[in-house]
Each structure stands twice: as C-alpha cells, then as structure tokens.
Amino acid sequence: MNVTLSRALSRAKARAAARATALAIATACAACSSSETRPPAAPLPAQGAAAEATADLGSAATPETYDRPSMWVCRPDLPEDACRANRDATELRADGSTVVVPFTADPSPPVDCFYVYPTVDLDMAPGNHSDFSDVDRMREWTFGQVARFGQACRLFAPLYRQMTFGTYFASPEEHAQRFARAYADVLASFRWFLAHVDARRPMVLIGHSQGAQIVEKLLQSLFDGDSAEDRARLARLLVAMPIGGDVQVAEGRVSGGTFRKIPLCTSDAELGCVVAFGTFLPAGVKNPWPGAPPPGLRSACVNPADVGGAQAHVLSGATYPTQSRYRDGMPGNGIARTPFLVVPDLYSAQCTDGRDGFRYLAIQEARAPGDARASPVDLGRSMWKSRLGLHILDFQLTQGDLIRLVQTKTASLQKP
To answer: 352 - beta bridge partners?
Structure first.
C-alpha cells in the first residue's frame, strides 16, 4: 500500500471514529433498558426572545453582555428559568415499587452555584456555536445535570459560544483558538456574577466535559494565584466540581498538576477543594479520553460517595431526566411520569488505577440481596466501552452524592 493511500485511509478511519463518538454522545441517554416511546416533554419556562440572546455578540463578550436576561440559562433573579421548572422525581425502590417524591428547593440557600454546561453542539465542523435562536439543548442538559442542586444553592448558568464537537478533532492551533473564544464568554459571565453577587457568599463552580475544562481555567486564572484577589476568591470557594474534564495532580499528592495550590478534596467537610473524576466501567478502556497524563502526574479521581476513601461505595441517588424534546428513549420513561427518576443504592463507585497514571471512577451495578430492579440504563451495551466510557452519565450516576457534598460542606462552613 503506498504512503498516500495509507494516510488517506488513516484520515478516513479517524473521521469515522469521530462520527461514531459523536453519535454515541447524541444517543447515549437513549441507552436504557426500556423501549417505551417517550411521553411529551413538559416545556421548560421561556426566558424571552431566545433569538435575541446572542444574535450579535461581536468579537468579544463583556460582563455587560450578561446584563441581558436572555444570556442566561439559569439566573435566580429572573422570574423563571430552566433550573426552576418542575423537578419532582419518581424513586425506584429496591423492591421494584415506585413513589413520587416532590422536589423541595431551599427557599434561601446560603451558597451560589455557577455552572458551565457540556458540549451540546455536535457539529463535526470545527467552530464555535453561534446560533442561539434555539437553546433547547443547553436548557435540557443544564436542567438534567444541575437543576436539582436547587436543594443546596442558587444556580447561575450562562450561555456561551462553546466549541463544536468537531473542534476536538481539529489542529491544536484551531482547538486553542476556539477554546479561547468559549472561555472568554464564560469569563465575562463569571465577572458579571462576581460583580452582582454578595462577596460574602460562598460559591461552588460546576462544569461537565468542555464545561469542566472551562471551570479548570477559571480556577487557574482567578483562584490559584498569589494575588490578594485570588486569595479572597479562594476563601469563598466551597468546592469546585469540574466533572469529566482533565484535572491532574502530582503523583502521590493532591495538588501540583492542573492547580498549584487548590487541592483535591480528601473529606466531605473540607472546603476550597476540587472534586473531579471521569466514569468508566470497572475494566476501563484501552485508550480512554482525555488520555494518560504526562510522566509524574496522575488523573484526578475523587469518589463523591466516599471522599478520601479507596473502597467501592454505593451511590446514594443516580438521577436520570426522563423527558426530552429531541432525544428518544430517555432512561426511565416507561417508569416515571415525573421529570426525573431517582435510583438509590443500585450502583457502586470506586476510584481505580488504569495504565500510565490514568485514574477513573469505576461504576458497576451493586444490588443488595433481594433487589428486584433493572438498571434504567443498560451498562452492558458496547457503546459504554468506547474512549468516552460512561462520560454522558458522569453527572447522572453521581448526582445525589454531589448534591449531598454541597450540603455537607455548607453545614461545615456554618458550624461555629
């Protein structure tokens, strides 16, 4: 085979792999054991003219850009938003029975959560998302991942010109350029947040996937330095949760990689620390995303069900959204009529060492004797053995424990 043909075939294989991964992302939440047709999704509350949101951001967003309500998926001073829709859940109990559990928001939470949503633009052409005439995907992912954090905090979630999925397969130069634009938007929104929120209030930074990588850069740029401003912001940080990103630490330490000073959390009550992980099946995969860290570093893994622990621990409340405007076969749609299905104590999680310093949160079913439930998501499907593992489910499997951590850390902060 000549070199030119070989290279062409390699590029074709890479494009095919990219498309397959994009398809996995688009359909992952449809990978459930039920084949029922989904019920009509209840509409999330409108927030004014979506087309106005970022029809003309110009070359750079500023904090003033985020004065506009339409620039936010969630903002607590607005009359309504995606994070305050109906958040009731159906709990699937070990005996197979179900019970509806009404959602109770904290009417006056002492903590603010700032959240950056993951990659929802699956366009295979490199670029930045710029059409905000339809923000259903941003609102649905935000709702499914963090709306129930309203038990613990006020929620802020900005729109931003995120990188498309195809940008992850672009040249390093184009990737950096596109990421810089996405980050600049979120940085502008975060500066708006800092300017408009009481500086005495603790904060939580949350992000998933691309959103996690942006949260990592926010922490590096605004919290991890030696300036008085950085120290003041770090003092307000309850916890950071860049989930499904690429946080790294020095071998044998809890910091020293991605962050100079901000450590991984080692206890439930510890403040100003990071909870980070990526979920995979116990066996892991051959070439996991985002790849092995450089020599001397290892991937961060903090088990939200057992912070600081090394053993497998049962996850307290896997939480699946059941309704969608654009995805069929949502988990639990044949079980629950509520917007969420909560499955307590069905899965276990354990931080596990892979190859070359790559660590991950290994997830498996862990039924107690007599547990009659089937998992709403079939973990036996081959799609979960791709490079991304259980990436799409990072927040769903661990959501109950992540919310509990925010509540525990808030209680610790309030102790005399």
So the answer is: 360
Got the DSSP string for 235-262?
A: HHEEEEEEETS--EEETTSSSSSS-SSP
Rounded to 10 degrees, what is the CA torsion of 141, 142, 145, 151?
-150
E-assigned strand segments in 5-83: 72-74
Mean pLDDT, each 10-residue run in order, the chain (416 residues): 37 44 45 40 52 53 95 96 97 96 96 98 96 94 98 98 96 97 98 97 98 98 98 98 97 95 97 98 94 95 96 97 81 89 98 96 96 94 95 97 98 79
CA gap 302, 71 in Å, rounded: 32
The sheet carrying 318-321 orders its strands as 98-101, 89-92, 340-343, 318-321
At position 36, the amino acid (one-letter code) is E
CB 206 within 8 Å of CB 146: yes
- Give the separation between CA 330 and CA 37, rounded to whole angstroms: 9
Give the residue among 349, 388, 382 at the shortest CA–CA distance from 365: 349
CB 358 within 8 A of CB 331: no
pLDDT in tens, 271-285: 999 999 999 999 999
Residues in the chain: 416
pTM above 0.70, yes or no: yes
Chain CA centroid to CA 32, Å: 20
Provide the 3-class DSSP secondary structure of residue 184.
helix
